[in-house]
Design goal:
CATH architecture: 3-Layer(aba) Sandwich
Helix content: 40-55%
CATH topology: Rossmann fold
Strand content: 15-25%
Largest sheet: 5 strands, parallel
Order of helices and strands: EHEHEHEHEH
Shape: globular
Strand order of the largest sheet: 2-1-3-4-5
CATH superfamily: Response regulator
Distance between the termini: 29 Å
Number of domains: 1
Number of strands: 5
């Protein structure tokens, strides 16, 4: 069975890049452009993993994660994807409850293996 990844990203170019790389790697990809759309997509599509930008229009990634966790009995892993690259930024993401952290720019070579690691329960700090 194909694993489904929900990508929540407001930048069209970043979204296309991640979607194309993951689809090529064999994943089913659904997407959303805002935190609110992401919450609706998570409920509708029941993804196996969520890749979420932290800076989104409307509610930000941290608030979207908080709301997602309120209604998520499956405890889907959610990975913060951000251009913030300082250790303090990573620490804040993990403190907020994210299961992983990916820095932008995304490495297209590394992304499929990183996603598989998150799906297998791994964390990347």
């Amino acid at each position: 069975m194909t694993q489904r990844i929900l990508v929540i990203e407001d930048n069209a170019m970043n979204l296309k890049l991640v979607r194309d790389v993951l689809q090529y790697a064999g994943y089913e990809v659904v997407s959303a452009r805002t935190g609110e759309e992401g919450l609706a997509a998570a409920e509708r599509y029941e993804p196996d993993l969520v890749l979420m930008d932290l800076q989104l229009p409307g509610i930000d990634g941290t608030e979207a994660l908080r709301r997602l966790r309120e209604n998520d009995e499956r405890r889907v892993p959610v990975v913060a994807v951000t251009a913030f690259a300082m250790q303090a930024d990573r620490d804040r993401a993990f403190e907020a409850g994210f299961d992983g952290y990916l820095e932008k720019p995304i490495s297209i070579r590394a992304l499929p293996a990183q996603v598989q690691s998150f799906l297998n329960g791994g964390k990347r700090k």
